[in-house]
Structures are given as structure tokens and as C-alpha cells.
Amino acid sequence: MVRLTSSLLLAGLAVSLRLGLRCAQVQCQPKVSRGMALLLRLAAPEPVCQSKSYKWDNLDNAILSTKYLGDASKDDWVYSGDIKLEDGNLLLTMPKNSGGTLVANNHYLWYGKITAKVKSSRGAGVVTGFILLGDTKDEIDYEFVGADLANVQTNYYFQGVLDYNNGANASVPGGDTFDEWHEYTIDWKPEAITWSVDGEVKRTLERSSTWNETGNRYMYPQTPMRMQLSLWPAGQASNAAGTVAWAGGQIDWNSQDIQEKGYYYATFGEISVECYDPPKSSYSLGSKSYIFVDEDGLESSVRVTDNSTVLASLGATGLDMNLGGSDSSGNSSSSSDNSTSNSIPQTHIGSGNAAGNSGSTGNSSSSGSSGSSGFSQGNSDSGSNDSNGASSPNERVLRGSFFAVLVAVVVLVAL
Q1: Which structural domain, as residue segments, surrounds residue 227?
Q2: pTM to 2 decimals?
Q3: Mean of the per-residue pLDDT values for the chain?
């Protein structure tokens, strides 16, 4: 996982919670440090789950991550990188020497079922992801390693804790995740998680099996998460050696797909979301958003409320959602948002099992529709050669304005 080495970087993360992909990009991690606890307090309310099926006739419901201010009623998806439409499907593309593509749903899920028709990418070092990921770093994954088209990897995390025993391979009928369509389902309930391929259950994780005596808690994903689709170059030479090995080796930027199409690609067909009721023990104070009332990052920490999820500007946070907006006279309340519209997401996509663990949105429905942003994938773990396998690259980092960084530094020092 990314290791934060300076309070300034941590502050930068704090003020970037809602620049596009919000806290899901910086991965608030409570109970790890006061800085990360601050991140959770800064997170804006999360839009509640919406049962819905998504088809890809156009990109009218997708917006660049650097333009999203939290209104999920207007935009279902945010994206970074290069996306295209082809034959009624969504293509996540990765041109030569680029950093990858991420598409995230703007509605959070607090237990429910997600299903997607997927054709993965292929090739050593290329990884496709279909995952759930939360602000507390709870996570449930399908990951497709391009060097192994016969299997898909399943995995889960509780508050981002890396445990190489959590991952497991699932065989795919026909043995080809690239050329053949398959339907992948994550069924997440308070008592169990089920991973299914083409309707066949491949793995079940019981909550009861995750009890941790030392921590006196279940290390089980239990807080709201959002769906993410991703394509990333895990096999970049600059990545950690363990990450490259897990991904099947270094990526070939002169592969067949690069030569024929100009990019690696993963294809997503229809996607469906079915929301389940909140846990019986939960408190509902409304129906619009999820919030955290403490820093434990547990199921008991979450409330359903009517709090607004919309920020006034890219520089605003959950502590001041009107920062950078205009007052009733039309005057700006702050100048701190003077440069964030040009922020570039630096994104780690996917999480990986241990090694050896068997511009603007398009408006047309034509196959030529596409969207692109200045996506750049960083790798803060590149200096770590973890021989056990991939580092957790799900640290979503967004650059905030320098002014906002200074404000966050002051807050951290005050702690």
C-alpha cells in the first residue's frame, strides 16, 4: 500500500477528498493515524444506493472526475483516462505508455448485488478490475490478470489491511476472459459475500470466518462502497517487483493490441445494481446519503441521512461544503479553488492478490463516441520490492490547490 512519508502529502490528500472521485480516491483509513481519521471527517456525505441497470448507448451520464461535485442525480459515473463506446459497449482503453483508465459509479452501495458483462484485457502486465471500494478502504474485488485468461482473481479487504490469504482464483467457463463474454456477480450481504461467474457460485466468504480475536471485531467489508471499473498497467517497469510479478511480467507496449488498435482495452457490457436494505441494527435519519458518525470505520459508524452530497466547488470538503461557492449576492466565498479544475488524478487501480495465489463526455450513440481526461497513474510503492506480490494500488490521490494544502497542514498541526 502507499506509504505516506510527509505531513504535507497527507494534507494534500485531506483537501482532495472531493476533487472528482472524492474520498474513494484517497481511501480514508480510520484508526490508522490521526491524519487518516481527519480524512474520514473531511469526507462529504455519500450518495445512497440506487437500483439500476446501465447500458452504453451514450456517455451522457458520465463526467470527468475533475468536474464532479457530488450530485449523483445528474451524473451516474465519473471517469479518468480514455473511454470509448463500441457496438453498445463501454471500452476502457490504455494507449501506449499511458497510465490506465478508471470509471466509478457515483452511488454508494451498503450491501447489495452488482453484476457486469465483461471481456477483460489481455497480455502480461495488464490488469482489468471490477470492484467495490469504500472510503474506509473496505473492498471486494474481481481482478483479471492479462497473463492468465483462464481465471479471474477474487479478493477482499477490511479497512485496507493487506492479507495475502484473502485472495483466490476462480476458473472461467471456456477459459478465455478476453474473447468471450462472461457475467460476473458480487453478492454482498451482512453475513456473507458470494462471487459468481455466469450464475455459478465460485466462492463464498462467511462474515463469521473473519473474526479477529486481537482486534475484537470482524475483518469483513461492512461500510458503503462504490463500484469501480478499471484498466491499469501493473507491469510497468517502474512498479514494485512484486506487483510486476503478480501481473505476469512487464507490459509489452508493442503488443498485438497496441499495434492493431493503438491501445490495450477492456470491454464492459450491461451492468446492474440491486440495493439491499441497510443492516437491521443501523440508524436511518433520512434516505439521501451515508455519513460516518465516528472514526471506527465499522458498520455501526454509518448513518443514512438527508444530508446533501453536493459541494460548492472542487476545493470544498465535508467540513465546509460551501467553500469556494457563491453567496446570495453572487460573490465567491473563497479563492482557494483557483486551480483545481486542472487537477490530474494520480490513481492506483485494483489491489492484486499475492504472487502465487492460484476531455469531455461524448453525446453520440455512435461507435466513435469517446471521452478522455488527463489521467496519470502514480506508484508510490515503486520503491518497495515486496516479493510476496502486489502492493495495494488502490490509493486514489488527487491534487488540491496549494492554498487548501496549507489549510490542511494547519489543521493537522493543531491535532
Answers
A1: 47-310+347-392
A2: 0.78
A3: 78
